[in-house]
């Protein structure tokens, strides 16, 4: 789990849902391609939109009343843990895949995340609880709308989907409410003044986004000299007025931008390797620069636009980063001291014991 489930905001979960459902929808389309003369009824099953969302198969067995985690002030029961996993799958199908593949060590990580959410949520005040509950209601409607778009806007199908997933509206709202409460507790000490101080301390590159077209001529299967010659030839053609997007689509060795005509749009420049980042920061906007050498090969670069983001534009991004840091601090300094015992059921995905 690269990012803590505990601090995934409801807005992020909706985005994750869109991505995950899209992937599952595409898989379902591929699976539904059957010979035209097939008449055994499998076509009808494949075209059922609910097929895209199979019920989560838990990789373990545990009694609903069993205590999965013991911590100072409370416990996590088998029922709570299962509801947490099923709701996470419902809100983010990609997490569901991870759950089904989880070994006992990974299940422990999920249980630790849920325990963190419960502990943090228990520290919320009445105002936080009110806000969290209202946000959970709004977010449920957003998630419902996303699912309905895959289900032909059929509410009966949506209800059938929830039933098939083993979740209820109350169960989903409860989990989102806990997540929101845990976030609000951590947000308490992250005010705008603190975020502004962080913004002011950032270097220019960290605040800059740019839209950059490039053509990569890789040195993986050719010599640096060959790559440079091709790059110089392409630079000359571009400066004579040939279409950058067309040449990029034809010549670039970068699969990530090939279909977009070499374009990376409104990207944080700090994500790029140093030489590419430096060119994106210094090259004159609108002009094709000389080939830039990186470990990947030679890049012909054209910066289409570049701007330094304002504090208001970065505020929520900075808040999310601060939340992650706050959670990491909580996990390292408090959580493991509060947890007194794990009773994680054995996963069927565990590697066989060596004889």
UniProtKB/TrEMBL annotation:
- Name the UniProt record assigns to this protein: Putative foldase protein PrsA
Mind listing the UniProt keywords for this protein, alphabetically? Answer: Isomerase, Rotamase, Signal
Q: What is its EC number?
A: 5.2.1.8
**For the PpiC domain, which residue ranges apply?**
207-305
Q: What InterPro entries does the annotation carry?
A: PPIase_dom_sf (IPR046357), PPIase_PpiC (IPR000297), PrsA_foldase (IPR050245)
Composition bias, kind Polar residues: at what positions? 33-46
Please provide, alphabetically and separated by semicolons, the GO molecular function terms listed in this UniProt record. Answer: peptidyl-prolyl cis-trans isomerase activity
Signal peptide range equals 1-24
Which PANTHER family would you find in this protein's record?
PEPTIDYL-PROLYL CIS-TRANS ISOMERASE HP_0175-RELATED, PEPTIDYLPROLYL ISOMERASE
What the entry lists under PROSITE patterns is as follows: PPIC_PPIASE_2, PROKAR_LIPOPROTEIN
Q: Which Pfam families match?
A: Rotamase_3
Q: Where is this region: Disordered?
A: 25-47
Q: Which organism is it from?
A: Brevibacillus brevis (strain 47 / JCM 6285 / NBRC 100599)
